[in-house]
Each structure stands twice: as structure tokens, then as C-alpha cells.
Amino acid sequence: MRYTNDRRKKKKLQTTLQLMDIKEIDQSSVITPDGQRISFILITPVNMSVLSDEVVAGRISALANILTSIENLQILCLNASQSYEKNKEHLAAQMKTETNEVLAELDRKDIEYLDDIRISMATGREFAFAVRFKKNIGRPQQEQTLKRLLLILLEAGFTARIAEEQELKGILAIYFAQDIYNDYWPDFDGEEILSPAEAKQEKSFLELIAPSIIDFRRQRYYVCGNTQRTVWAVRGYPTTTKDQAIFRELGEKDGVTLHIYTRPVGSYETNKILERAERRNRHMLNNSSRIKEKVEAESNMQDVQLLIENMHRSKEPFLHCAVFIEMAAGNDKALELLQGDVAAILNRHKILYDKLFLQQKEGMISAMPTGQNLFENQFERVLPASSVANMFPFSYSGKTDPQGMYIGRDANGSNIIVNFDQRGQDKTNGHIIILGNSGEGKSFLLKILSCIFRQSRKNLYILDPENEYKELTEALGGTYMDMMTGKYIINPLEPRLWNQEPAAEFEPIDTPKAFLKPLRINQHIAFLRDFFSAYKPFPTEQLDTLEIMLELLYKEFHITEETDYSRLRPSDYPILTDLYKLMTRELENYEEKAATGLVVYRKETLRELCLGLHGICTGAESVYFNGYTNIPNAKHIDFGVKDMLSTNQSLSNAMYFNILSFMSHKFLTDGDTNICCDELHELLKNRIAISYLLSFIKRGRKRGSNVILASQNVSDFFLPEIVEYTKPLLSIPTHRFLFYPGSCDTEEYKRILGVSDSEYRVIQNPNRGHCLYSCGNERYHLHVIAPKYKKALFGTAGGA
Questions:
Q1: Gap between the Cα atoms of 770 and 789, Å rounded
Q2: Tens of pLDDT, residues 298-309
Q3: Four-CA torsion 409, 415, 417, 418, nearest 10 degrees
Q4: Do residues 177 and 169 touch, judged by C-beta distance below 8 A?
Q5: Where are the domains positioned within the chain?
Q6: Considering the entire predicted model, what is its pTM?
Q7: Which residues contact 707 (CB under 8 A, 6 or more apart)?
Q8: What angle do CA 577, 536, 712 make, to 5 degrees?
Q9: DSSP summary character for residue 575
Q10: Domain 2-81+123-189+197-265+317-389 has CATH 3.40.462
């Protein structure tokens, strides 16, 4: 009995292997039992959902040229596995050396979450051109054809590569066995632990991926292993259509395999086809007694005439085209839903299809990656090359950066995993800007990013005008400081570094002087001029006098160009009362000094300066500034400045500047530091502050430091008096998250941000948690999502 069962299993396996029609796999091709070779060139798709019509038209035109350059090309779109191994390895490495238990636990849970979404969410998608070589074509000619096709694809703007052995195995393993878990497939089972001779006695790769059963006894679908599948064939297309890339939705639909066959139509055959169409429609027009048939015939005649005119004008060739669509699901209910989705797509584009009743076996062989069109010309249609290219299925909206972190999904269901420190030709920095109306999800995104930055070992300093990040900061082991209580002080007179490198030969004219001076003490005195200008609009004469007072003050405290700052404690620096005492002393002794002829400032100027600085040095406002720096040397600080928004503008400006000075020092000295400025529109009122932010952005890249800017009042950026300053803030960051902008000048918004009409459509209506994510040249319709374990840390303040 056991012997009989074994024989049945072997017979079933042999039948399955025969249907798979694969003999072996070499370095760059799949070899069939009759000696034919099938090679694949893998295509990196684009996210067409946010591309403009002009760009899509250009892609379609490029594909038409490719289809006419290489004969008998096949186009494939099928399921693939999103590999997160590099991401998991990166997280595991972080977790091993992380001393913060909360962050280490987030790393561990992120690894589990990546495993979960790989299994439960939409898989990746693979896109390829396939070329079948007959056995009489030699290997050198095959390689030459592949290299030629690859070169044509690259010149046409496609990102492409020839599939190698492991990639070929992956395509077959996922198609036949739904194996989305492995990233490496051996030639034989146990190859890693057995000797080569022993391994060859075990199951081969093809036996390992062969479905346990392939059953065609049902009319409408067939069973393949653990899946139920059905194959449809396209019967007809609309004569004309304004739709572009009509198969792009099918291209990225999970569970759908799309196989398009093309072969050239000779000139003689083209003429015969057109003549036949003309005679048939002319006969119907002249002889039919039915008005409907006459109208159809007349319309068809016009289409034929237009076709001939276009062909004569553009010399566009025709192609035989056959399309097969396979749908696979885990059960009959899921398969029925998937068929409904596919049918809706086809019906929307007025595409006729055949469900291939009782022909599912032939359908499977025609649709599978290594298959061939068993229906021959039954479902072939003759179309201009541009019409075939307009099927353009190479659209996919997923993103997986090595060492990246999960921030959500594209609106089409694909995961978005980003490494903000990854560089490329179109990604020159890691700066981020987030724009959108209130309540659209900006703060929620910022909380996700805060977790990512801390897990990535970045120092993080947040300017928090609404106290929205307090709970998250404390949950991650950071420090929250309410800067309006007077408990925490940043001494504005403590010299900080503003630039570690010599100023460039051609610095922008609006670059703050603090970034241009060569020495730290000179840099900081230049900063203090701007700091006190932000506090009050002191005239130039008073600022010049103040600069002299600062130079005298630092000499008194023995802080010079040769000072070793690493040996000084916060209490070794002067504070504002020391400055005020010096100025009053200089005022009292003015006549005595003036008699020597060494005084270059006027007494009245010094008196007015003392009066103007009284409040910040010794008066009511001194509680926020007069004292030694007592900010802990923490890697994660949330500066709470909520009450600062309701105070007077002078105090608010000075507070902002003082905190920025602390952030800048960490930003440029420690490196690997991210500065986050929420509610940026509050800073836009101060042109000097904008110029400092711009200088941070331009200098942070070399130190691995980034600036994250968020604002809700987009219209504030477009004010005529500051728009020239704010433009770089909007254009320099590589990463842009644009939410629904609310009420604004749409055309001005698109012009300044460089947003196309198709991109703006993504955010033209309120949709909380959804935004247009721009990353260099990439565009995504992002749905921002936080895993539950991260969301639990966010607290109840805005953005939760």
C-alpha cells in the first residue's frame, strides 16, 4: 500500500513538473525541456499615480520604441517578495549596542513588525521583459540580444538589470509555491549542511517549489497548491481611448499575474489586414439594412482611415498582441473579490475579456512566467505599437530603503520604508519639511520621525510651541524642559561654535556673520549682535557700541582666541548681569576714559543701550536669560515654549534665538543631530531667524545633521517681503511631506513648491493622515501609519 502511495506521489510530481515546463536554471536564464532559454530583464517601476500626463506620455512613447526595436518581447507583472532582511539586520545591530531599554525594545518590535507586514500586507511586485530564445540560437547571440535590449531600456530612461540565478529562482518560487519568506534558494534541499554528492540525492529546487497539486477539473478556476486561480484572456480593446497606461492598476495589484505577448506584423500582413478591414466595413455600410450596423461600419471606416493616416505620418509599425491575466487567492471568496476588482478595471477601460471556461490549463501555461501562448492567434489582436505601449503596466508605489524605517503605506497598499540618511544623485541631504493645514496629521508624522531618529542614534532637539511632544520625549527617555518657567537657562553669553570650517569663497549675501568669522569668540560676538537685534531693533551705532562692550567683557573673563573651551565649565563664562555691570561702570567712568582719547562711542549711545538692555539683563525678562547654562547634556531634549507665543514679540524672538544657539552648537559640534522646528510660521516673522535656519541647512549635511521644519500656515511662506528667503527652506530639503494646504493660492503654491497638477490632486482635499511624500525624484501618496506599540508612546497631545 505504501509503495502504491509513493508511486502516486511521484507520478503527480512528474505531472506537475511537466506543466511547469522547466528543465533547469543557469546564471541568467530558465531552460525548458526542449532546450529553449527564457531570460528576464527586471524593471524598476515608477509610481505613476502621481506623475503628470506629460511624463506618462513620455514613458509610453519610450516603451513603444522598445517594443518595435526587439522582436517577440514579452511583458510580465507578477507577485514578488518585499525583502526586509537588510532592514532587520540594521535594527538587530542597533539593538545589541543600545543602552536605552525603551529604544532597544522599539528595535525588537520593529523587527517583528517587518515580519508581520511581509506576511499579512500586500507583497511586492516584480516587473520584467522576457525573451524566449529558440534552441538553435547560440549563447553568444542570446547574450548580445540581452545586452542590446538592456542598453535600449537604459537609454530610454528605464532602470533595468538582467535577472540572475537567485532572482530567477525567486520569481518561480513565489509564482508556483507562494514562497515569500526566503531570500535564498539552494539547488538542492540541505545543500548548506550536506556534501555536494549527498545534496544531489535530495530534492532539487524545482521539486521543492512544485505545487503539491494542480487540478483543472473545475470550469471557472483551477487549484494550484494552496491557491485557487483563474486565467482570463483579453479579447478586444476600445478603438480609441484618452486613458493612459491602461494596465497600470493591474500591474501593481497583489495576486495578479499579467503576461503580455508581442510579435511584429510584417508590411505585407499589415496591408492585408487593413484591406480586409476596409472591405468588411464598406460591405456592411453599402449592404446592411440596419441603421445601427451602418453607423458602426461608418465609424469603423473613419477609424481605419485615421489609423492609415497616422501610420503613414509616423511610420509606426503594428504588433500582434495577446494578453493573459491570472488571478490567485487563498480561497474561493477571496478569488471572487479579486475577480470583481479586475473586472471593474477592465470594464472601466472598455476592455473585453474571455474567462476561458474549460480552458484553464491552457490559460495557466499561457500566463505563467516561463509559459508560451498556447492559444496562438486566437486572442491576438493587431494594434499600433503605441497602443500596445499604452498598456504600460510598470507602476508600483512601494519603497524599501536598506536600513530604512517604516512610516506608512502608499495609498495603493505598498509599504513605505525610508532611510533619511541615504544619499543619491537626487538625494543630497536628509533635511525634511512638513507642510499642511491644522489637523491633517503633521504632528503625528513628527512623532513617528522622532522615534526613528532616536532609534537611529541621532541626537534630537525639538522646538515645541504647543507642548505636543512632552509625553513622547519622556517615554523615550528624553528630557522635557518648559523654558518659560525660568528653571532652565541657556546663557546667551556662553560662546558657541557656529562654523567649524572656513567660510566658502562665495557665501550668499544674506549669510549671518556668525557663520563667516574664523574664530569661535568672533563668531559668537557676531551672533550676539543678531541676538540682541532680535530682542529689540537697536540702531547700528548702539550695536557697534555693544560689540565693544562684549569684547571688553570677554577679556575680563580671560576668554580669548587661544581659549581651550573644553576646560571651561558653564560657571566660567560671564552672564548678562556681568555685561550690565560692565556697561554701567563704563558709563560712570566715561569722562575719565574719554579724556584719554581712547573712547570711540558716545556716552548717550551707551546710556540708551543700557536702558534698552535693562529688561533682559536685570529686569523682568532676565529670569529667562540671566544665569549659567543648566541644560543637561542630554541627547534628546524637548524645549517647551508654548507660553512664549503669547508673550511680547521681543521676548519671543530672543527666546527662539537663544534656543537656536544651543541647538546649532550641538548640530555642528556633536554631529548626528537633528533639529526639529514645529510651527515654523512663528519664526517666519523674523528674517534674521530665517537666515540662521538656512545656514543650518546648508552646513548640517557634512556633520550628518539634519533640520526638520513643520508649518501649517503655508501662505506665510509666500509673503512678498520674505518669499525670497523662504524659497530655499522649501526647495533644499530632499524629503517633503505635503498635506492638504487649506486655503491658499493654489497656483502660487504649485509654482513655489514645484508641484505638478497630478501631484496636487493627491492633496487638494482634506484627508487626515494622507500626504504627498516627495523624496528626490520619487513621489508617493503616503498614508502615515504608526504601529500600535509606537502609537502608545505618543501621549494624548496633538498628533496622537
A1: 21
A2: 676 666 666 666
A3: -50
A4: no
A5: 2-81+123-189+197-265+317-389, 108-122+398-488+631-800, 268-315, 525-626
A6: 0.79
A7: 431, 432, 674, 675, 676, 677, 693, 696, 697, 700, 733
A8: 115
A9: -
A10: yes
